[in-house]
Amino acid sequence: MSVYDLLEKWKVKKYRVITLEDLEDITVGSTLLATGGGGDPDIGFLWAQKIIEDKHEIVLLDPEDIPDHELITSVGCLGAPVVLTEKPPGGNEIYKSLEAISTYLGKDVNAIIPAEAGGVNMTIPMAVAGALGIPVIDADGMGRAFPELQMTSFYIGGVSPSPVAASNEKEEVCIVDSEEGEVSERIIRSAAMAYGGISWISSYPMSGLEMKKTAIHRTVTHAQEIGKIVRENQQINTEPVKDFASFTGGEIVFKGKVTDLNRDFGSEVTKGFSSGLITLEGIDSYKNSEAKVMFQNEWLHLEINGKTLSLPPDLIILMDPETGLALRTDIIKYGYRAYIVLIPADPKMKTDRGIEICGPQAFGINKQYQTLDQLKE
Amino acid sequence: MKKEVRIGFDVGGTFTDGVIVKGKDILSKTKTLTTEDVTSGIINALDDLLTASKVDPLEVGMVSFGTTHTTNAIIERKNLNKVGIFRIGAPATTAIPPLTGWPNDLKEAIGGNENVFIINGGSEYDGRDIVPLDTEAVQNACKELEGKVDSVAITGVFSPMIPDHENRVAEIVKEVLGDDIHITLSQNISTISLLERENSTILNASVISVMQRSINALKDATKKRGIEASLYVVQNDGSVMSSDYAVDYPIFTVASGPAASVRGAVYLSGITDGVVVDVGGTSTDVGYIVDGFPRESAITVTIGGVKTNIRCPDLLSIALGGGTIIKNSGDKVVGIGPESTGYNLVHLGKSFGGPILTVHDVAVARGGLNKNLDIFTNNFVTHPEKIKELSNDLVMNATKNITEMLEVTIDQMKTTPEDIPALIVGGGATTMPKENVSGTTEVINPDHFEVCGAIGATIAEIGAQAEAVADLEVEDREQAINEVIEMAKNNLEIAGGVKDTAEVIDIEEIPFAYMPGKRQKIRVRVKGKVFN
């Protein structure tokens, strides 16, 4: 059955076939939305590019067009980004984990949703959906990137990630079934370690209806529009930051260059994450100001001249002034120049349960969540 | 006879610069036009130098050059080797096969997809095999490649840490295809990040013959002129490598030009930390010096449309050079560049009786240019009356704008709030303002700045690096670092350096994200001398 058979069956007339240029824009945009994390986006981009070049079609559907009763699942990779860049997928890993979910639930998976609008895990679902001949949904579960399996609007909205299947290139599969998202996260991360640092997962099997209620809608298109803004500014050699901020409803709060970078070491401190603190000294109109950004895979906490200006789950984005590309926590270095843009997180991430699951305290920041506007005052 | 004389060349887009030095003295310098084949331009410069300096060729102990041979070959897709491509990593990695995302013409120029083999094998980060190496598949692939390729590129998953599978494949390739086949192993090219390292490795394998031919031609040329000296090539970090090593690793020369300029500026000024501003006719490259070497860029470098992770200097380029056009309305400056008169400066610029106001003319009016460079045949001003016509205010305003452009660029490259020295070099160096440049402690035009890159090529220092992954939960940190230092020193020796002279430049520790435990990557850079 091809993707078009499914569309006919669902009576969906409106859809979009992703082109190579769309894919480039989506990659650039989702890497910005990844707020410093999300891993090297190239792997997902190149994989999806290969899928398009091999004459598969990546078909993007609006979340509202997915029938309520269909089974949909999120796919992606979980583990160490550095392993991902050194040991890219064979290609069958995710199909194996999807198959395991189907078998476990006794039902076919008929659409794929990205778990995060960040980096590699936004483009991998597109490659997988394209290869399998099922649609990919224009939505995700974060509107940004976060490091842990349970930190999604799906889980916040009451959908458990379980059953989660994790596979590797040898097509070894494990399945975790737990109502507790945090427990699933711990077990799947151990599986990733056992697999050599990275696991290829299918998670959050849910109905179309559950997806519509809990997902953050139209984030693939959103990422693509952002990528387009960056590309068009690059073509005429202007700084993209203003257009970016106005399109995303964000605010430019700083421009500076990295003058200090302090990475944490030791598992008892980092709990396996890439964490630390960078200091930026203001340049241009921000001269004599100082910004400090705390990170744990993603940029999490921003302080300018000693005053806290952003807390998770709101988005802190560091953008290279000239190219408009994202500066990631794993590649940031002394001397890098950046704009800092703050964007409010989607309301679905900021419910009471949302703040519990991915607010400041979930990252060990001993502060009560306050919105960007509250912090500004 | 003491062989104290060194000869250096720097091949640029327009000019090939050459110098001949003895100890600290510069005996002669030259600027000749770069030729299409590059090599004959270098030989022309060599003849100029030998004639002008009257040095006894037997006194020459070192000849070295920074070159664009390999870059040109890749960009023009010319004279490239046909490359047999092995990736060791299946059943992982196959979703994105080698050459994915390459421009089609370049892919074809190196022989295309039919010479690509993905072999079962490779390592996990902790040293386990992904699966055992499929040696039979390697043998079969070699038989298919027989007579079809000139060189072979081998890339194994996690080979920079665990090289065993790559080494074994290289042995088999030699057994089947003979000792003459050129083999590039990715472990020797760059670091973690399979696809970019593989691209770098394949590109390296594709330009081996290009480098070999140019080195052979230069060896012949020097020999014919009675020079019995070792030949060296400048690499991307500004140090040199022996020519034999360069034949195996030509890709390390792609950014040698700007790197040599930075090294030359350090040598000429004695300043080891600061910015180097290399001014040309249409643009200016700003690089940063850390401990005497150019700071390295962390961003991936695209060569000929292919993403690589080769280490290159961190440079910021702006459209400001001696020939840059200044637009004015009365005494007010409306814009500076990006247009430039380029090499037509000597016809179009006001100083030469032309109609266009340029950065050069403003420098003449300021009195910043007051002597001819002995390397240029033309005078820097032939129509002084045209310069006298310029109003003081216009000259001051233009100078202020140019200074600001310099200040912003220098500030962007700085990593500390403190003021730093700025070294201005290159053919257009004298056109830049030197007074009141904020952010700098001083602005210096070192002597011989116009042949800075060629001088950089004569500095007999070699750089090398090594890296490994350590698990600090089981390994002692200091011991782990010392092991990597030892590896880097061995690499230095392989590149042509004297091991005893090795000095550690930089130790970098990068923790693995997302993973429990205390695993981190350790990378060490060393430098050492060519002679003892």
Description:
- The complex is a heterodimer of chains A (377) and B (532).
- Chain A has helices spanning 3-9, 20-33, 42-53, 81-86, 93-105, 120-132, 153-156, 181-194, 208-214, 219-235, 241-248, 267-270, 352-358, 372-376, and strands at 16-17, 59-61, 71-79, 111-114, 136-137, 139-140, 164-167, 173-176, 198-207, 216-217, 251-263, 275-282, 290-296, 298-304, 307-310, 315-319, 337-343.
- By secondary structure, chain A is an alpha+beta fold.
- Chain A has two domains: 3-217, CV3147-like fold (3-Layer(aba) Sandwich); 239-376, Beta Barrel (CV3147-like).
- Chain A has a seven-stranded antiparallel β-sheet.
- In chain A, α2 (20-33) packs antiparallel against α3 (42-53) and α3 (42-53) packs parallel to α6 (120-132).
- Chain A starts with a helix and ends with a helix.
- Chain B is an alpha/beta fold.
- Chain B has four domains: 1-77 and 208-254, ATPase, nucleotide binding domain (Nucleotidyltransferase, domain 5), CATH 3.30.420; 81-206; 271-449, Nucleotidyltransferase, domain 5; 461-529.
- Chain B has 15 helices and 23 strands.
- Chain B has helices at 39-53, 69-76, 104-109, 135-145, 164-177, 194-206, 208-224, 243-248, 256-269, 345-348, 359-366, 384-388, 392-413, 452-457, 477-494, and strands at residues 5-11, 15-22, 25-33, 60-66, 83-90, 116-120, 151-156, 182-185, 230-234, 240-242, 274-279, 284-290, 293-294, 301-303, 306-308, 315-318, 324-329, 332-340, 420-425, 440-444, 461-471, 503-511, 519-529.
- In chain B, β14 and β15 form a beta hairpin.
- In chain B, α1 (39-53) runs parallel beside α7 (208-224) and α11 packs across α13 (392-413).
- The longest helix of chain B has 22 residues, at 392-413.
- Chain B is globular and about 80 Å long.
- Chain B starts with a strand and ends with a strand.
- The relative contact order of chain B is 0.11.
- The model of chain B has no long low-confidence stretch (mean pLDDT 89).
- At the A-B interface, α3, α4, α8 and β11 of A face α13 and β22 of B.
